[in-house]
Amino acid sequence: MSENSTPVSAAPPTSIRPTCGIVMPMSATVECSEQHWLEVRSLLAAAIDGAGLNPRLVSEANDVGVIHKRIIGNLYDLPLVICDVSGTNPNVMFELGMRLAFDKPAIIIKDDKTTYSFDTAPIEHLTYPRDLRFNRIVDFQKLLQAKIAGTIAAATSPSYTSFLQSFGTFAVAQIPTAVANRDDLVLEELQDLRKMIHRSNPASGRDDWLSFFERRNPPSYIKIRGELQDVFSFTDQLEHLHSVTRSLVVIIGKDSAMVVIEHSKRLQRSEIKPIADACHLNVVSWTGIDDSSASGSSNPAAQND
Fold this sequence. Notes:
This protein is an alpha/beta fold and 305 residues long. It folds into two domains: 19-166, Rossmann fold (3-Layer(aba) Sandwich); 216-304, MTH889-like domain (Alpha-Beta Plaits). It contains eight helices and twelve strands. The strands form three sheets. The protein has a five-stranded parallel sheet with strand order 2-1-3-4-5, sandwiched between helices. Helix 3 (90-101) links the parallel strand 3 and strand 4. The protein starts with 18 loop residues before the first strand and ends with a strand. 28% of the residues are buried.
């Protein structure tokens, strides 16, 4: 973008806001670079925030978990999901199909270079310019904010008609839920991670979850000690850094964890150290993060692995 896009209106002053999920391409394509998608994500987040909702990729969550399980859970639970079908990314189309199968509110957007897909053509699409020209993007953000407000209001109305209901009467797919205590949930997530490790390729010696990150950019790693809730607070704040696209927490002990960070550019310790300090965490080691300050880390003994 030649100019920075800004939120087109102020978010309502509420302490707890609903979350709006985002489904969109993230990796570079023939037509668009990875930086392009980061800019699209930023302008979508600004519009969603201005509409009074918290923007979040459906692959993100505030807890440890298997990415695919998290995606399906968010597609089912979130009150609204925005799907960017630009470039007809197969993962995006699959996740859009799941959202529609769950019969939940969704807003479809695309850039002005992408043609309509046959199956989703009957659904209204909001269009934005692929070149992200500032004036047209601001108009698009205003339109998207209005669509968000209208969709949320319509979904709570008794007369709301979903996409599936337009074609007849269907039994909507359900995800069974049950109340569980914290220990059971932690155990389940650890078992899921163990299963992923078992599915790793013995020839390469790499785990599936790690390969997921390395397909994009070489990730960075931070081994830290502290309370688990402080670790999640740390990753939440990390993902507010412009260069961080996502992070994954892997519990490796009672009071220690490994944070895997996917980023669009090389990270500096001077960016991360204040966040770790504020979250009362002790950094044990760094990998793939430049030592740009003399202090280096929360722990003077911390060194690159």
